[in-house]
Amino acid sequence: MKILFIHTIGKNKYGGGERWVVNAAAALKNRGHEVFVGSKKNSKILKEASEKGVNTVNFNILSDLSIYMAIKISRFLKKHKIDVVISKRRDLAVSGMAAKLGTHPVVLVRSGSPPQRSIKKHLFIIEKFSDGIITNTKTIKDFYYLKGLNKKIDINVIYNGLNINDSVKAKNFKEDFGEKKIILSVGRLSAEKGYNYLLEAASILKEKRNDLIFYIVGDGKLKEKLLYHVDKNKLNDIVYFAGYKEPITPHLKGCDIFVLPSLYEGMPNSAMEAMAYGKPVIMTKVNGAEELSDNGKHAFLIPPKDHNAIANAILSVLNDKEKSEKVAEDAKSFVRSKFTMSCMTDNLENLIINKYNAKKKNK
């Protein structure tokens, strides 16, 4: 089949959603499909897709009403006889218009996290232009129907898949921090990731222990504010901002504890990967956290927006080594059995083929 992923985003942005697109596109390509990824020219996502051997195309969707881009994409659909388009939420209106102008391919929208604003508008666009939704948690599926999405729109839960590589060497944090315990967090430096609560927890723990390092991997628009907070509260000796790192696997394998303080998430890839490598994971009880942890069996779940809960959970993991190691080991087995790339690709491929056949039959 011929498949086009449309995912326009800032040139240097490359988070969980972008990784999903690249991994899914590469996996489908490896199964013999002809696959394209469309995004902004010179963007990180196109570079990563190209390095995995996936065809790329330059699309820059600036608004929901870009008739120019809808015509440009429709011409691409006709030229390459695209069977299926998989779009991100923000690109769906233009992608859907292009499909109607073009060859009427199957149009699926991927929603990796619940929409936070303009929900009615978003639901209208989905009902108008899509043949179904792909999401990665049951909680997001329930969210859509709760908000009033037409029940005739299929929502397909396909869990994210991991590329597990046990041969990757763990980062040797001892070179920089000696025997101190590394509390790792990974993600964009933006408000929804909850880093201000993590820093408040660091302030609490600084008074209780002298062997902790809070190591934060990521970049974003909140960086200056977070750095100011660190400086103001004299946390420079225990908080380290590493910036954007790719791949992240060595850091995950080298840390002692992984913390996800997010205010909302879809299915958190970094926490999933930390679990796959046998690390104790502390994460806020938001969206996919319960599914990923099997209702708290395989991670330490805490409420969002609660710096005391973060601090207490870190202390609990450090003080009860036997329990934390057991939880981490069970988590490793659970994630490696349920959240594999082959499982994800099987489910995605089956969905695409079934949707295509159904649409072709109804023409």
Structure description:
The chain is built from 15 helices and 13 strands. With 363 residues, it is an alpha/beta fold. The strands form two sheets. Strands 3-2-1-4-5-6-7 form a seven-stranded parallel beta sheet. The protein has a six-stranded parallel beta sheet with strand order 10-9-8-11-12-13, sandwiched between helices. α2 links the parallel β2 (34-39) and β3. α1 (16-30) crosses α15, α4 packs parallel to α5 (119-129) and α8 (195-206) packs across α13 (307-319). The protein starts with a strand and ends with a helix.
Q: Would you summarize the structure shown here?
A:
The chain has 363 residues and is an alpha/beta fold.
Provide the structure class. Answer: alpha/beta
**Tell me about the biggest sheet?**
7 strands, parallel
What name does the CATH topology of the largest domain carry? Answer: Rossmann fold
Task: Give the CA-CA distance, first to last residue.
Answer: 18 Å
Mean pLDDT: 94
Determine the number of helices (DSSP H or I, runs of at least 4 residues).
15
Spell out the CATH superfamily of the largest domain. Glycogen Phosphorylase B
Report the principal-axis shape. elongated
Rg, Å, rounded: 21 Å
CATH architectural type of the largest domain: 3-Layer(aba) Sandwich
Integer tally of domains: 2
- Stretches where pLDDT is under 50 for at least 5 consecutive residues are none
User: Which CATH top level class of the largest domain fits?
Assistant: Alpha Beta
Taken in chain order, the helices and strands follow as EHEHEHEHEHEHEHEHEHEHEHEHEHHH
- Quick one: how many beta strands? 13
Strand content is 15-25%
Helix content: 40-55%
Enumerate the strands of the largest sheet in spatial order, edge to edge or round the barrel: 3-2-1-4-5-6-7
